[in-house]
Design a protein that fits this description.
559 residues; Rossmann fold; 4-stranded mixed sheet; 36% helix
Length: 559
């Protein structure tokens, strides 16, 4: 149970981070605990509600569903609302009461506390968690796309079922949990303060005796309104941050910021008063933000890069018919077996005439069922290869009549088509199109950065790296002077080392680690999105930097 909750907490943070980074609603994941019987379910529920499980963190967040509780209207209401973000339930304890048609998309962790030899029971239980919450599509984020099943004593049977070719569990994979650390619990997603926000905060502190607490909040809100306005006027002839100092540009900024403020307070009971108090701060905040943009923000162009007119080609080749084209004569018997005495006997099967279709047409029809085989584009190649296949079958069966040939191909057409297609794939290539730049604007707003903060605390980046390199990824790092974001978490000690170099190198003026959606750069025929590790500005240029382990540098994807 503790292992399951550990995975659940990690998933919860990952989903919140993904949702905020992509402007999507936050999905609330839950855990399903499968119990042996009602008494077992009651004891598990009692345990989960007790102080023994993470000091009582799940009190009031557990729902038990069994034959004794299913008629309770309150339980039914909570169960039906499991997908609602407002529902506090995070763990459902059940005893085989969830029928096959139960349809939710936020089940992320399954803890089976009962052994089961029945494949159908295993598949039904796990099948409930194979629905994806964001439009039924994979997001590409491993934590958001993964259903976790916690291993138990009988888990080998799950693996055996998973390894069967027709099992929906075919893609089961394994994660070995590290030993739990109390500091991992209680994590939260936090939006990192920017250098601009820090300067606005200092401005507030200077005049704290002169304005109310409410007005202080207004100043922060105005700062966000001004930043939004700056990103919007990039489309209106503002070529650089230096242009923000121009009087006419500042006036445009003021108009847009005021419009944003009025829109944000329009539903307030005191809309006019709230707007007036915020508008009173606009000029001072514009001054702070414009100055900070000039000194601290990298002018990243707003640009979308994507590949156009990608073409897939099957090159001409001769079919290798050395194997797979010696088709045995068909035996026309039906085998019948008695259930009571296990005896069997043969019945002669008559011809139905269903396979009179010419062998070449049958194989062509099977080949064009493959998604990437376009008949109109490569019909000449298809007829050539199928002709060679039919010729090979004839040569291995001298004197075969056309009807017999058609019947044999009909019986083996899928194997034959698979063999031909496999060879075609060896002569398949993609011709990349030109890269098209849809639109370029002078600069884009630096997006908000979310990080997960836990109880490991913060470290100044100057401090020695933890002895265990694996611990580097657990801390939040502060103390940066050249970065727009004031806090970071790093994915490796290499990234932490690189940030130290950037902070201490005199040639570097500014740098950031961009958030995932800062850029729209696509590669791998448009299938993947590139997210740079660092953006670094010097006097000469702005660089996109990628840090890699030395062993990975020559990997084709890295190149």
């Amino acid at each position: 149970i503790e292992d399951g909750i550990t995975c659940h907490e990690r998933t919860k943070l990952a989903i919140e981070m993904y949702a905020k980074q992509n402007g999507l609603p936050v999905v609330k994941p839950f855990i399903l605990v499968a119990c042996r019987d009602i008494n077992h379910a009651k004891s598990v529920e009692e345990l989960l509600q007790s102080d023994r499980i993470y000091h009582g963190a799940y009190k009031g967040k557990v729902l038990r569903i069994d034959s004794s509780s299913k008629k309770d209207e309150d339980i039914e209401r909570q169960f039906v609302a499991l997908e609602s973000p407002d529902n506090e339930i995070e763990i459902v304890v059940h005893v085989n009461m969830l029928k096959e048609g139960w349809d939710v998309n936020n089940l992320y962790t399954i803890i089976p506390l009962r052994a089961s030899n029945a494949a159908i029971l295993i598949e039904q239980t796990i099948g409930r968690g194979l629905r994806l919450p964001y439009g039924g599509q994979r997001t590409g984020n491993k934590d958001v796309d993964t259903l976790t099943v916690i291993a138990h004593d009988n888990f080998q049977k799950v693996i055996e079922e998973a390894n069967k070719s027709n099992s929906l569990l075919k893609r089961v994979s394994f994660i070995e949990l590290e030993e739990r650390d109390e500091r991992e619990q209680g994590g939260r997603v936090e939006t990192t303060p920017t250098s601009t926000e820090q300067k606005i905060q200092k401005q507030i502190e200077k005049v704290k005796g002169e304005i109310s607490e409410k007005s202080k909040q207004y100043v922060i809100q105005v700062g966000k309104a001004v930043e939004t306005a700056i990103s919007n006027i990039a489309a209106e002839g503002v070529a650089s941050f230096g242009d923000l100092q121009k009087k006419e540009v500042k006036e445009k900024l003021r108009e847009k910021a005021i419009a944003t403020i009025k829109e944000s307070v329009k539903d307030s009971l005191f809309a006019e008063q709230d707007a007036a108090e915020q508008i009173a701060q606009v000029d001072e905040v514009i001054k702070i933000v414009v100055e900070d943009y000039k000194n601290n923000v990298i002018e990243i162009p707003r640009i979308v890069v994507e590949q156009q007119n990608i073409k897939a080609i099957f090159d001409d080749f001769d079919l290798d018919t050395s194997e797979g084209y010696n088709l045995d004569e068909l035996r026309r018997e039906i085998i019948r077996q008695g259930l009571t005495d296990s005896t069997d006997f043969e019945v002669f099967a008559g011809k139905s005439g269903s396979s009179k279709r010419p062998a070449v047409e049958q194989l062509i029809a099977s080949l064009i069922d493959f998604d990437d085989v376009d008949y109109d584009e490569i019909s000449d190649l298809l007829y050539k290869l199928v002709g060679q296949a039919v010729d090979a079958i004839r040569s291995n069966a001298p004197g075969i009549a056309n009807d017999d040939l058609n019947e044999r191909v009909h019986a083996f057409k899928q194997n034959l088509a698979d063999n031909i297609y496999k060879q075609m794939k060896e002569h398949y290539r993609i011709i990349p199109g030109e890269f098209k730049i849809n639109r370029v604007l002078p600069f884009s707003k630096i997006l908000d950065q979310q990080i997960i903060v836990n109880n490991w605390g913060t470290l100044d980046f100057h401090e020695p790296v933890p002895a265990q390199k694996s611990a580097v990824v657990k801390f939040v790092y502060v103390g940066f002077k050249k970065s727009y974001y004031t806090k970071y978490r790093f994915d490796s000690s290499t990234e932490l080392d690189f940030s130290f170099i950037l902070e201490t190198n005199n040639e570097v003026l500014k740098w950031i680690r961009p958030v995932p959606n800062q850029f729209n750069i696509y590669w791998s025929s448009g299938a993947k999105k590139y997210e740079p590790d660092f953006i670094v500005e010097t006097e000469e240029a702005i660089y996109m930097c990628e840090t890699k382990a030395e062993k990975d540098v020559n990997d084709p994807d890295v190149q």
